[in-house]
Amino acid sequence: MTRFEITGASATDMEMLRTWADEEGWNPGDSDRFAFAVADPEGFLVGRLDGEPVACISAVRYGSGFGFIGFYIARPDVRGQGYGIQLWRAGTERLKGRLVGLDGVVEQQDNYRKSGFRSAWTNMRYEGVPRPGEDSAVQIVDAASLPFAALAAYDRAFFPEARDAFLSAWTGLPGRTALAAVRDGRLEGLGVIRPCSGAARIGPLYAATPEVAAALVRRLAGHAPGGEVAVDVPGVNPAAAAVATGLGLVPAFETARMYTGPAPELDLSGLYGVTSLELG
């Protein structure tokens, strides 16, 4: 008789989750798992069949009232056998009582709606090598040169809860580049690029204006192999899509940001690229 059990993810499991996500075509960051682990060490679950990993999910808690679901994957050879839904129930139970968000792939969105999620906006991944152009007059600096408290406070305009430990790792891991836009001493933009198996991913991408967003993308692309980048652009900000197309990037992959309740109040006009499809 087979035995299915759900356990917390080990460090080895976290690398496996990245591999599975890559096989799904999601192009996760090479070192994302190190930032994920500090966000909520107990938020990553693995389903094991007779001890062998066959499914996974992340159900990460932020603050006292928000949660985010990602990494919902069942191995292709066990799909349709009920293991994935058991993990789904375990993940949603862990976030019970919170507003929960996720970025759902197109083929799963109807299932998420059946579980009480409603679409807030569409994310479209744009990829390519940005066209050169004139940068904004804003000053672009290494984000590490600014007080971290300023970066964390800025991030709070675009995310429902404080996530300082995650943000510190996300912006500071080796191999990544985090750039900030500054004008007259004010923070007017932030972008992080990270290496992936495919195009280097930019996220988050925050900016006060389209010109600042475009300047950040061009500068960040200088840290990508071959200059090729990918940005998950929220459709709720039309200026963001205009920046992506103006830079010559093309649509490649679509998801939907969905919530179990009213969408949180965020500075959507300044959100040009979401941080991560797995953790929000």
Summarize the structure.
The protein has 280 residues and is of the alpha+beta class.
The structure class reads: alpha+beta
Give the number of DSSP strands: 13
Distance separating the two termini: 39 Å
Oligomer: single chain
What is the CA-atom radius of gyration, in angstroms? 18 Å
Work out the helicity level. 25-40%
Mean pLDDT across all amino acids: 95
Largest sheet descriptor: 13 strands, mixed
Shape: globular
Topology as H/E string?
EHHEEEHEHEEHHEEEHEHEE
Flag low-confidence runs: none
Q: How large is the share of residues in beta strands? A: 25-35%
Number of helices: 8
Explain what this protein looks like in three dimensions.
- By secondary structure, this protein is an alpha+beta fold.
- It is built from eight helices and 13 strands.
- Strand 9 (186-194) and strand 10 (200-207) form a beta hairpin.
- The longest helix has 13 residues, at 11-23.
- The radius of gyration is 18 Å and the shape is globular.
Task: List its traits.
single chain, 280 residues, alpha+beta, 13-stranded mixed beta sheet, 28% helix, globular
Topology:
Layout: E1 4-8, H1 11-23, H2 32-39, E2 44-49, E3 52-62, E4 66-74, H3 83-94, E5 99-105, H4 109-114, E6 118-128, E7 139-142, H5 148-155, H6 164-172, E8 177-183, E9 186-194, E10 200-207, H7 210-221, E11 229-234, H8 238-246, E12 250-259, E13 271-273
Parallel strand pairs: 4-5, 10-11
Antiparallel strand pairs: 1-2, 2-3, 3-4, 5-12, 6-11, 6-12, 7-8, 8-9, 9-10, 10-13
Helix pairs in contact: 2-6, 7-8
